[in-house]
Records
---
Amino acid sequence: MTPRAKQNGAALLAAMLVATVGAAAVLMSAFGTGGAQRVREQRALALLAQASDALTGFAATHGRLPRPSSAPGDGRERATPCGGEEDCTGYLPWLDLGLPATDSWGRALRYSVTPVFSVAPLARTAAVATKRVQSRDASGALFFTVGQDICSLPAQCAPAIVFSSGPADAMASSGADEANNRTASVGFIQRPPSAELSAPGGPFDDLLAAVPLQTLYERMAAAKTLP
């Protein structure tokens, strides 16, 4: 092989090496960003599970679920009774529950509780849990995952909802489903995340957990705080 051919081969090999390293760097960067995001989502989901458990623990001790905090940084339940569903919707009283103040993205968790479940003693034979959750099927149609159109004693819904507004939490770019969750006091939406503007319900990254009524009653009964 001539010296010129050797030089050309070495130059080609160097160029290929630079391109390979560059492509690998891009892939690693993308994977790292996505991986970090997934870790944050898993932490947020774990916090929601902790919040649901802490809420039932609070009820087992106090004979009722806590009222919401009025402000995200407050951390304590409001002192006055709820006047209705909207009045019983706000922020999770994280300080009273012994939980972190914020989720993975530095924002306080939202919280909505059925008013009658925030009053002790809880009248199990008359209390109707009112919180409903819907999702969307492949065609975009809404369907219930928790509760139904009408909540009643024979067909209960959930006593409380706690949710994270997710990584974006941008009012200007959010879709109809996220806008619904920001203002809802009874009917909430939880569906797979999507960044597509054209997706049914628009872009979505909220994370939500419903407090199970049966679990709540079982823990309260075990603690003898359920009449």
---
Amino acid sequence: MMIMTRLTVSLVLLLTLGRAFSDEPGKFPTLAEAKAYRGELVFVDHVNRRGSLRLHVDGHYHEGKLHHFAMLPHGMIYYHGAPADLRDIPIGTVLYGQFYLPPDPKTSAVPDPGGGSATQPRENHAALLEDGPSLCLREGKAWKLKEVEINGSEGNLLVTLDGEHKVTLDGSTRVWRGKELLGLDELVAEGTWPAKDLAQSVQLSLTWHPRYLYQQFHADDIWLDEAAMKVAIERQRQRHIRHIRLRWMPARVDTIDHGKFGHATISATLFGGMDESLYADFKEGIGGKMAVAENTLRTWWPDHDGMDGKITKVEKTTGTPEFCSSGIQIQFEVPLILEGFRPGCTVRIRPQNWPNVKPPYEETVNGFEDRWPSPAIFGK
């Protein structure tokens, strides 16, 4: 059975040209301009925020080309219902994304697909990437578990979500109930499974299945109740908070008000997709530090070459923020403007209560030739 819900890509649109998104000061993409694709994560280069998906296209399994993608600087990632980084997502996870044409193919961190194809469309820069539970939670949806079939150490789930689907499970499937992690054998031993005529709301994380060609999937994780999902959300949320506090909040420079002798006031918009507790640390009147970043969000040695300053204003937009924007703009005063502090450029900002440390060495930019890593890693 094919899993064809709103979670699925409209394959009819795969060859339709999307729109390029330009990194203009103060401009964020609109969701209406994006193209939606779904696929299995098969490769990740987390340092440069890029990877490869095997898109779900009927009849294009063996002969299909991988869809190499790069995250836009403001691109948002969600895993298990919480903000995430690409390093958090296991290979094989089925992901859903919103993609744009590259801002500049000549400097893209992934190869230009040329005319594009069903499995390798031209839209290869992601503004949003999320797993199934994240998408369902965002849209207020859940799978309905109707029946569980068990045959030895394997089985099937009969589930519905805008249609009826059969998903496989086995001893590798993690089943979460409350704060418990259960195996298939434990659920069988206690008499919970197999079961029929159920009407239980669950969340599923799907992964690769040998009959992928026919859009069949395997259950990697199953959350049987809301309490279990909340535990997963909180665990991922805490991973995300630590990651951003140690690497600082990404933002885009909007305007520069130059003063005398290099002094300047920088207006910058914080990117969206972060935990609310991180945004709450940006307060008027506190000190901080701003560092130059690449579009991959990599920095040099931010603790050394960043510029100390002061947050003088924090403004929040009224209503719903733009797609990929937090809706929070700060003004940051620095005694000396740096070359990378220009309108449209990406920076990372640290409020004074965040650690003033350098990221792992392999995540830093080490030289001019490293500013735009070659896409040759992906081959042809």
---
Amino acid sequence: MKREYLVPNKEFTWVAGESPKSDSDIQDFFNSKAINELKDLICDLGKRSYRKNFNDGNGGNFSVRVAENIVLCTPTMISKGSMKPSDMCFVDMQGTQLAGNRKRTSEVLAHLAIMNRQPMAKACCHAHPPHATAFALAGKKPPRNVNPETEIFIGDVGLAQYDTPGTQSMADIIGECGVKHDCVFMLNHGVMTWAADIETAFWKMENVEAHCFTSMLAMQIGGVKQFSDEKAKELIPIRKALGFVSQVD
């Protein structure tokens, strides 16, 4: 008998039309076992992100869509390295805060702008990893067809023009860019990645930062050597199988 080897599904799932609506139901959901486990994971990712120097001061944020009209997110003005589960917030898909003792981050509007436009986006990670952010400050994309992992996990990086962080106009720019790009360089700001689950969104952040770092090193010793577009196309089915946006019209 052939043995089955399982791949864990980390996506938080819900049933359409069954979002908690009353204040008491929302509070019960906010304090439920499933949401508390997700809060713990976000705090762990915050520590991992902070240790990697992805988040300076109170920079960066995380969000996960946990119901049709509810998103769990990190609060404003907090170091991602010292977050506690009790710091987390609930907002609706328009950004109105529903639960939590701390005020939600203003930049959750950008996360929601992606989620409202791209159904595949159920978790977002925003950070300021130094090498990827350097490309964003320069308004440049990292090289393509350089390593297979980046082609699979990142593909074509989107460039979102600068606007004031925390504003709806900035959110809309990022949201439009995030429809076809699951990694967005926010010019003069930082990086946004999204996925079906928050850990994969964070992996994308790690991947694009590593790619930008090694690309910079390669450029210093003579430049990058690219493989062909034909070979790159062979990686597209893997990307699709992992549930990433195809980026192909």
